Amino acid sequence: MPRAETVKSQARRLAKVAAHIADHLDEPLDLERLAAVACLSPYHFHRVYRRAWRETAAGTPSRLRLHRARGSI
Question: Is 66 helix (H, G, I), strand (E, B) or coil?
Fold first, then answer.
């Protein structure tokens, strides 16, 4: 079980990534770039992101783009 400090730190990092995705939805968003925004290695970022959001970092922009195209956003 992660320590409370670690969970808070990861939540802040993932919030930065979520904001970055929302601000750059029309641009290519690869794992390496999103991991850099979170200041984590791509491997660790993928694990943290998937555990927190229950989808991959590549799946989030795709889902948001589809919602936007459908007019849901």
Answer: helix
Query: Tokens 């959001």, residue?
Result: 53
What is the CATH classification number for the domain harbouring 50? 1.10.10.60
Structural domain range at position 53: 4-70
Residue 2: strand, helix, or coil: coil
pLDDT tens per residue across span 4-48 = 888 888 999 999 999 999 999 999 999 999 999 999 999 999 999
Do residues 59 and 52 lie in contact, with contact meaning Cβ atoms separated by under 8 Å? no
Global pTM value: 0.81
Query: Alpha-carbon dihedral of residues 64, 70, 72, 73, nearest 10 degrees?
Result: 50
Q: How many domains does the chain have?
A: 1
